[in-house]
From TrEMBL:
One of its GO terms (molecular function) is CoA-transferase activity. The lineage of its organism: Bacteria, Pseudomonadati, Pseudomonadota, Alphaproteobacteria, Sphingomonadales. The keyword Signal does not apply. It comes from Sphingobium quisquiliarum P25. SUPFAM superfamilies: CoA-transferase family III (CaiB/BaiF) (SSF89796). This is CoA transferase. Transmembrane segments: none annotated. InterPro entries: CoA-transferase_III_domain, CoA-Trfase_fam_III, CoA-Trfase_III_dom3_sf, CoA-Trfase_III_dom_1_sf. Pfam families: CoA_transf_3. It comes from the Bacteria. PANTHER family: SUCCINATE--HYDROXYMETHYLGLUTARATE COA-TRANSFERASE (PTHR48207).
Length: 416
C-alpha cells in the first residue's frame, strides 16, 4: 500500500480486519488496542478534515502534518483512508470494506449512519458475521439516547466528580474532574473487551452481533466500591481528597522536605508502619487497632501520625518503607514517571517512525504476552495517506476510477 509500509502482524488478533468509523477518543482508543494486538485497522476520515483531534493542540507535531499530540496518543497501528461517507459513492466504498471486515467501530449519534446505509442492520445484511460496536454518550435507548455525550459531561453526570477533589469545607474544595479523559478511555477499554468476547462467540457459532456501548453506563460501572458502599451499606460517598473512603491510613502525608504517599491495606501493615515511624503504641489504642475503628476515627489517627511522619525526610521514609515491604511512594509529575527506570525497563515508552521519517513517541500496550506480544507496525498515520492503497489493493479500484473519485471529492489522498 501507499503511505505506511505493511509489516506482518504478529499479535494475537493477526488476520482480523477492523473498519474504524470513529473519531476523537473512545472509539479510536478501542481500535488502537485492537491494532496493537495485531488486527488490521482501516480508519475512515472525512476528506479535507480528518479526525477532530488532529487539531486539538497545541502542542503539534513539528512536521508537514502539524497533527496535534492528542491525535497521536490514540491512532497508531492504523491505516487512514479519506472517504466521504455522505456521498453515495463513498458510502458504497465503505460498505465494500465492511463486507470483508470482522469488526466495525463507530461513534455517530444514535441512528446517524442509517441514511448512509452504514448502520448495523444494513451492514449485517451484507456480512452476517460482522461484529458492530456503537459507542455513544448514553446508549441506543433510554430518555437520553439523542443527547451528545462528552467526557467532561459524563464525569459530572455519572457521580465521579462528586467523589473527586477536596472536601467542600477545605481550601480548594468542590467537584473536580480526573486529569485524563477517563470516561472516554475506559469506554474504549470496555469496547475492546466486549469485541473480543463477541469474537469468541462468533468462533463458536458463526454469528456476529451488535454491541451498544455508552459512556455513562461505563463510568457508572466504574463507581465500584463507592457505589457498593451506598447500595449495600447506605453510605453516601463524598469527596475525601487523597483519602480512601474505607481503608485508613491510605493517603498523602507531609515529610520534612515534601509529601509522600502511604497506602496501607491491612492491620498488619498498619502495625509495621507505626513501629517504623516510632509510634508502636497506636495499634494498641482501641480506636485504631483495626480498620473498622480507624476509618471512623481517621482524623484522630491523622493527628497522631502527622508529627511522627513530619520528622522524616521523604527519601529516607520511602526507603525504610520499601525495606519493610510497606507500600509507599511519591507523587511524580509526568516527565519524572516517563523517565523512571521501571517504566524504561518495561518498555512503556516507544518510538515509531511515520512514513515521512518523522519520529513519534507513544505509550505502548501494557500487557506482556509470552507467545503473541503486541506489535507496533504503523505510526499514527497522516490523514488519507493510505487511501490509494486501501482502494486499489483492497477493493480493486482502478487507477482511472480512483482519479475520478479524487476529482469528485469522494475520496482524498494525504490531507497534509
Amino acid at each position: 500500500m501507499s503511505g505506511n509500509p505493511s509489516p506482518k502482524a504478529t499479535g494475537p488478533l493477526a488476520g482480523i480486519k477492523v473498519l474504524d468509523l470513529s473519531r476523537v477518543l473512545a472509539g479510536p482508543w478501542c481500535t488502537q488496542i485492537l491494532g496493537d494486538l495485531g488486527a488490521e485497522v482501516i480508519k475512515i476520515e472525512q476528506p479535507g478534515q480528518g479526525d477532530d483531534t488532529r487539531r486539538w493542540g497545541p502542542p503539534f507535531l513539528e512536521d508537514g502534518s502539524k497533527d496535534a499530540a492528542y491525535y497521536l496518543c490514540a491512532n497508531r497501528n492504523k491505516k487512514s483512508a479519506a472517504i466521504n461517507l455522505a456521498d453515495p459513492r463513498g458510502a458504497e466504498l465503505i460498505r465494500k470494506i465492511a463486507a470483508d471486515a470482522d469488526i466495525v467501530v463507530e461513534n455517530f449519534r444514535v441512528g446517524g449512519l442509517v441514511k448512509y446505509g452504514l448502520d448495523y442492520a444494513a451492514l449485517s445484511a451484507i456480512n452476517p458475521r460482522l461484529i458492530y460496536c456503537s459507542v455513544t454518550g448514553f446508549g441506543q435507548d433510554g430518555p437520553y439516547k439523542d443527547r451528545g455525550g462528552y467526557d467532561f459531561l459524563i464525569q459530572g453526570m455519572s457521580g465521579l466528580m462528586s467523589i473527586t477533589g477536596r472536601p467542600d469545607d477545605e481550601p480548594g474544595g468542590g467537584p473536580m474532574k480526573v486529569g485524563i479523559p477517563i470516561s472516554d478511555l475506559v469506554t474504549g477499554l470496555y469496547s475492546a473487551i466486549s469485541i473480543l468476547a463477541a469474537l469468541a462467540h462468533r468462533d463458536r457459532t458463526g454469528e456476529g452481533q451488535h454491541i451498544d456501548m455508552a459512556l455513562l453506563d461505563t463510568q457508572v460501572s466504574l463507581l465500584a466500591n463507592q457505589a457498593s458502599n451506598y447500595l449495600n451499606g447506605g453510605m453516601i460517598p463524598r469527596r475525601l481528597g487523597n483519602e480512601h473512603p474505607n481503608t485508613v491510613p491510605y493517603q498523602d502525608f507531609s515529610c520534612a522536605d515534601g509529601d509522600i504517599l502511604v497506602a496501607l491495606g491491612n492491620d498488619r501493615q498498619f502495625r509495621s508502619f507505626c513501629e517504623l515511624i516510632g509510634r508502636p503504641d497506636l495499634p494498641d489504642d482501641p480506636r485504631f487497632k483495626d480498620n473498622a475503628g480507624r476509618s471512623p476515627n481517621r482524623h484522630a489517627l491523622q493527628e497522631e501520625m502527622r508529627p511522627a511522619i513530619a520528622k522524616w525526610k521523604s527519601d529516607d521514609l520511602i526507603a525504610a518503607m520499601e525495606a519493610a515491604k510497606l507500600p509507599g511512594g511519591r507523587v511524580n509529575d509526568i516527565p519524572h514517571i516517563l523517565a523512571d527506570p521501571q517504566i524504561e525497563a518495561r518498555g512503556v515508552v516507544r518510538e515509531m517512525v511515520r512514513s515521512d521519517g518523522t519520529v513519534v513517541k507513544v505509550l505502548g500496550y501494557p500487557g506482556k504476552f509470552s507467545k503473541t506480544p503486541a506489535d507496533y507496525r504503523y505510526a499514527p498515520p497522516r490523514s488519507g495517506e493510505d487511501t490509494r492503497g486501501v482502494l486499489t489493493d483492497l477493493l480493486g479500484v482502478s487507477e482511472a476510477d480512483l482519479a475520478a473519485l479524487i476529482e469528485a471529492g469522494v475520496v482524498a489522498e494525504k490531507l497534509h
